[in-house]
């Protein structure tokens, strides 16, 4: 291969890397926590929820277009501008399609995560579940932790 072909390829590779770098730097979704501890969760009290605050710290709109959770006991929705989005659960059980929401630069939205302790009635003790949030600024994950009691 000729030397200037190498040079061109190097310049191209650097240009592509630069585009990805700036695309990422220009839109970042910050979360107030990556893990929330829900403490003791009683089966007698049924479904409970906890909120994460998401802030667009970048300078471009962030589009969230789906979520998925690690278990059917756990669902998640985005509340943006007072509007509640659909609840997402495990992908394999079928999730809503065609939904998206936009967080403008400097804007915030709530990620509400629900846990249903009666989805597995025999389970007692520590539980960790993961929620994945798919956005135009990449995929982010949060966790809930709890201790399931009767
Ligand atoms: Cu579960």
Compact overview of the structure:
By secondary structure, the chain is of the alpha+beta class. The chain contains one helix and ten strands. Strand 5 and strand 6 form a beta hairpin.
The hetero molecules present are: copper (II) ion
Number of strands: 10
H/E topology pattern:
HEEEEEEEEEE
Could you give the order of strands across the largest sheet? Answer: 1-3-8-5-6
How many structural domains does the protein architecture include? 1
Number of helix segments? 1
Superfamily (CATH H level) name: Immunoglobulins
Q: Return the average pLDDT rounded to an integer.
A: 91
Instruction: State Rg.
Output: 20 Å
CATH class: Mainly Beta
Head-to-tail CA distance between termini: 70 Å
Tell me about the biggest sheet? 5 strands, antiparallel
Low-pLDDT residue intervals, each spanning 5 or more residues: none
CATH topology: Immunoglobulin-like
User: From the 3D coordinates, which CATH architecture would you assign?
Assistant: Sandwich
Percent in strands: over 45%
Portion in helices: 10-25%
Q: What sort of overall outline do the alpha carbons produce when their principal axes are compared? A: elongated
Helix/strand/pairing class, anyone? alpha+beta
């Amino acid at each position: 291969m000729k030397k200037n072909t190498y040079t061109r390829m190097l310049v191209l590779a650097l240009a592509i890397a630069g585009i990805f770098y700036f695309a990422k730097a220009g839109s970042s979704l910050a979360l107030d926590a990556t893990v929330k501890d829900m403490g003791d969760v009683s089966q007698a009290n049924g479904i409970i929820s906890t909120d994460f605050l998401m802030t667009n710290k970048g300078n471009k709109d962030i589009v969230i277009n789906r979520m998925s959770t690690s278990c059917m006991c756990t669902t998640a929705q985005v509340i943006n501008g007072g509007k509640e989005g659909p609840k997402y659960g495990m992908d394999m059980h079928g999730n809503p399609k065609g939904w998206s929401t936009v967080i403008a630069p400097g804007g915030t939205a709530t990620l509400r995560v629900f846990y249903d302790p009666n989805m597995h009635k025999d389970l007692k003790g520590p539980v960790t579940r993961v929620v994945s949030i798919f956005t135009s600024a990449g995929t982010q994950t949060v966790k809930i932790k709890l201790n399931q009691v009767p």
